[in-house]
Amino acid sequence: MTDHKHTAKAYSLDSEKVEAETREWLRKRGVRIEEIAELVMFLQQKYFPELTIDYCIYNVEQVLRKREVQNAVLTGIQLDILAEEGKLTPALQEMIENDEGLYGVDEILAFSIVNVYGSIGFTNYGYVDKLKPGVLERLNNKDSGQIHTFLDDIVGAIAAAASSRIAHRKQAEREQEMQSM
Question: What region holds the YutG/PgpA domain (predicted)?
């Protein structure tokens, strides 16, 4: 019997490479950071009227730096692509191809992103998932020939997480101001 532990090369994840690949796959699938930031603005502007698109972009960028987010983005996009190529088992192929309402795994993957910044993100996610504003409307359009069963939920989740991040930061700022009075 051979001891594989001594012959196998040690695995070491290159975090910068994973982050770069995450951003590249979003771009390849037609999603711009600015479009996600517009969703954040849509979600948060009435609570924070002074909010700028640059601050929304910054928060989207911070969300994309999180490993759990990168894992979800890469996994979801690859499943969408495999479905486009017809490379999934027949039952799974049909469910993903048709964005089956009872499938739910696409939402579960999105929840892993939303959960990074706490439960407030679930409310934001549910809201944009229902309304499908901006980039989400485009990704949800079945006429493009592309399958975005996972990506539309992932993009909504990134926006919800960035919105939660902003809400938490703004609350911390308010508390800091109250303490300094």
Answer: 45-167
